[in-house]
Here is the input.
Amino acid sequence: MSVPKEKLVDVQSRADGRRIPIDKVGIKGVRYPIVVKDRARGEQHTVGEFNMYVDLPHRIKGTHMSRFIEVLERHRLKVSLRTFKDICHEMREILHADVAHLEIAFPYFVSKKAPVSAAEGLMSYRCRIEGKLENGTLDMIVGVTVPVQTLCPCSKELAEVSAHTQRGEVRVDFRFQGFVWIEDVIELVESCASSPVYSLLHRDDEEHLTERAFAHPAFVEDVVREVARKMGDHSAVTWFRVDVENFESIHNHSAYACIERDQRGGMKDKG
Amino acid sequence: MSVPKEKLVDVQSRADGRRIPIDKVGIKGVRYPIVVKDRARGEQHTVGEFNMYVDLPHRIKGTHMSRFIEVLERHRLKVSLRTFKDICHEMREILHADVAHLEIAFPYFVSKKAPVSAAEGLMSYRCRIEGKLENGTLDMIVGVTVPVQTLCPCSKELAEVSAHTQRGEVRVDFRFQGFVWIEDVIELVESCASSPVYSLLHRDDEEHLTERAFAHPAFVEDVVREVARKMGDHSAVTWFRVDVENFESIHNHSAYACIERDQRGGMKDKG
Amino acid sequence: MSVPKEKLVDVQSRADGRRIPIDKVGIKGVRYPIVVKDRARGEQHTVGEFNMYVDLPHRIKGTHMSRFIEVLERHRLKVSLRTFKDICHEMREILHADVAHLEIAFPYFVSKKAPVSAAEGLMSYRCRIEGKLENGTLDMIVGVTVPVQTLCPCSKELAEVSAHTQRGEVRVDFRFQGFVWIEDVIELVESCASSPVYSLLHRDDEEHLTERAFAHPAFVEDVVREVARKMGDHSAVTWFRVDVENFESIHNHSAYACIERDQRGGMKDKG
Amino acid sequence: MSVPKEKLVDVQSRADGRRIPIDKVGIKGVRYPIVVKDRARGEQHTVGEFNMYVDLPHRIKGTHMSRFIEVLERHRLKVSLRTFKDICHEMREILHADVAHLEIAFPYFVSKKAPVSAAEGLMSYRCRIEGKLENGTLDMIVGVTVPVQTLCPCSKELAEVSAHTQRGEVRVDFRFQGFVWIEDVIELVESCASSPVYSLLHRDDEEHLTERAFAHPAFVEDVVREVARKMGDHSAVTWFRVDVENFESIHNHSAYACIERDQRGGMKDKG
Here is the structure.
């Protein structure tokens, strides 16, 4: 079953007469092992899920999907924040496109010491990097989802003892100038909740966290405002969106709050 | 493009020479609206997700997948616990099979009054029915997942004030004789946790639940044992499995416990 | 444990000094049975998943989460496209907010006849309605996800026989004036793929669909352009976004394409 | 806030009077980076999701959840098939248990050459290892999910041209004696489908795969039987279960088939 070369027609490169350009076209949901920079250890191995798109002018019928994988193959195990822009550039060139879109989602591991015993355990945080390269400029958004504990201020004031707490998730997406460590954003977020969460805790740590949470009650409204305030004060952050979702322990649904701000014009007071 | 009948060969009915019978073959992930019996209102509309399988003897190449949908169509909006066995019988007959397997998963809605204000709100519970019809006997398992609040006994004793709580999920699957209301199993489970959860709560309810939980601390181990004890004492229950998963508010992982018991020989003490 | 009224302090209504308004605050992931309008049968029962948010001015500490459920309770089983605006209005009023956000996701069932045998089976489509009520104006987006079959044009031209096909999903979100039936959008989308998909097909239908797909090869690029062209020609549609994802049968990842257009200024040719 | 040691009561170690032993208790859903053995490169970095349980005798109130994480910490980046039994032993010892259960799910990467061009791309396969250590004996099940292409034999015979194809997933779980490479099981499965799937394919590869699939039509019934036959013939395999799910390209649901066999007594012919 030998294949004469002339037979392998390039259907994708044919003309298209509908005069409709496509905003994004490419591949979605490709898993590849990656290595990312790590504040504590230099770098860490993890697994990324990739979406890779380019724009397509109205004249051309289709893009060449295999070339996205070829770009990924060339950067196998070398994918990182540092090579992110290079990958976008290669996508644009190899696919003769004006705009390249690259999205990578990955778990990021941070070794964390328990607050009293100092016992160490790894925490995993869901992170993502989304970028759009157009006219030589890369517009990049970094995101991280941070699990926290929240203690209900209303429950605390109402009940004679105790107060209900729950796990919450704070999702922060941001644009920045210069460099920002994911670890710094995680710590910023954790300082805004009733308490951080840990993978490894001994009894003295658990006592400490219970009392810390009781001393720092916070609605989703409080957490979203505190994170917004601190992201707004961060000199490198030019835009951010904060989502807080509390997996309420007395309900079967979530409490939710969201603030999005463009920092280039300053934090606007809409109240 | 008219189709002469003789052309429509029945590939599935051909012989297969590999001498390998198939345990289950059929369709998976079909959504259909259903009506189920409801203790409070007689019946309720909801949406079911269906898996339908039969066995296939070694001699035959394939089953006729479209016939499963035909059975479903005949019972459209009449699918219920009462018609469950009829559907299994029809599957077996129309597909010339020895064994029929039917699995339905659906949200089930229960109107629940808040504990102090008596304000009413709907709760949804994930339920499932799984049955196997063989030699005229239907082996049926009913399951329900009940969200609850748990308060950590360790945290309560350690801290001077308060204790961490979280949402947990109790999954109960059971075989039974006679009839069992899903509502009864939900109430049985809720009585074993630190407190039930609700969709609608006012401030006096929230105060009540906070204090109730503080008065009833429970590890996953306590919840799974209490539910096992009460399911074991239920006269209609012949087998059960209880899974408890706590979405820990001080960790980013779950605490988990499981007990499975065959009641026909009595609860065995393995300790 | 009786509760004197004066004790039930309203923590949420207190002042907040951080001067940070919140864009959205409310509840997420609440399931309720709903009844929606249906072109063929007048109406149908299904199950909705609700997100309900309002804005919160900088001066106030928190919103009153229970009021969202109260609004939902008042409309139990009467939630529909027609009452959508009423629900938004009630949310705004009862929560003293400027802006109300309502999002409902639900499976929608359509009875569909097979192309040759005319055998009927129910198809379920994932739908959603998202609205924002501000200054008396409701900005509403309706969305529907339509599964289809696509046949690869490249594979068809290369191979001497056959061509690989796969299931794809077309997600259309749109703003509109007047009224648009979801059924019409489903049919519009299905006409743009290699073939529609069905729940119930007999052999003559399967033959027909196989040949139909072979006669209508389509890349994701072709499907997204055809749907964009037809949505652009629809007189009631003022904005749309079309996503096409092919679950490639020769890969373990998806092919993807997306076009978004604001119709009020006409379809722009960016090529 | 110094903590006098005597205050840190060990609630978990207290007696329990309910006389109900617990089958499994522990932690669920913990993510940790792992290194696994790899036929081609010696070893590879990936990310595992862990469930770790022990049994609990009826006399004791609770297990010590933090000890599971301590075991994991000691094996950080050294978790592998080789250390699997060691981890189970440590769990049993440190928790004074009779039985230890360990479950690890992880993506496994294999570099695969396209069939004609020999272009290389990474494929990721969802794998899992589940073990139960009791009385010094480890009962271990290894599992792998392999995506494949299937071409419908019925459609091929009915239509004058072409045939519908789709992505399918074959899930194989097995017990074994000695050693089995995951890569070997993947290749065994791929040889039973209409064609394998790849991450990187050029046009000549696509032509080849299209024609290969057309020459090897296979129902889910055919795939499940072929995989069962080859697993049954594998000298190291003592038990297996094969699930095949086809994401039908002409339906919105799956076709499914399953065979489970205990090889120690030989493959039984139930037909």
The longest strand of chain A covers residues 22-38. Confidence is low (pLDDT under 50) at residues 1-5, 267-271 of chain A.
